[in-house]
Amino acid sequence: MAEQQQQMPMLKISMLHHRDRSKDEETWMKWYLEEQIPRFIAVVHKHGIERCELYLTPDPFKEKFQADLDTFKGGRDAGWKMASYDAATIYWVSDPQKLRNLVSDPEYQKIIEFEKGWIDQNRVDVQAGTQYTFIENGSIVNTVTKAYD
Fold first, then answer.
1. Which of 16, 46, 131, 143 is the most buried (most CB within 10 A)?
2. What sign does the CA torsion over 55, 16, 130, 97 have?
3. Predicted confidence (pLDDT) per residue in 81-139, tens digit
4. CA angle 141, 14, 137 (to 5 degrees)
5. Local structure of residue 141 (DSSP, 8 states)
């Protein structure tokens, strides 16, 4: 019987953006969804990125959940806080070279220029890693449960 080759998990790279504070949140979100994404996505697609997502974090959500953190942190230190970024652009790739190709594409520079005055170019955090799913469609998957003693 042939040995099965284990498939590497997809690499998830998240670019965490802060809006330029000269723009109100509603106007900024509208710009991102209606102006930025329609221009940006064709360049991303050209480089074979397997999946691209946008995750928005409106201030009212952050404020509400910060209040919850302050109340329900379960006796943990007071240092728990909501992340301050306003949007995450999330790329899923099977090969990190695809993202390298994207950010080195001359068309990508047009994206950066278009973002000026909308996205704070000096405050971008990046995360890179893999993601594991343990509850899907309401069921526990990919693990065997254990009890705390």
1. 16
2. positive
3. 899 999 999 999 999 999 999 999 999 999 999 999 999 999 999 999 999 999 999 99
4. 25
5. -
pLDDT tens figures, 57-70: 999 999 999 988 88
- CA distances in angstroms from 7 to 10, 95, 126, 131, 136, listed in the order given: 9, 12, 25, 14, 20
pTM, two decimals, is 0.84
The residue assigned the tokens 């106007």 is 27
Cβ pair 43, 52 in contact under 8 A: no
Which CATH number, 3.40.50.720, 3.20.20.140, 2.20.25.100, 3.30.70.100, labels domain 11-70+84-140? Answer: 3.30.70.100
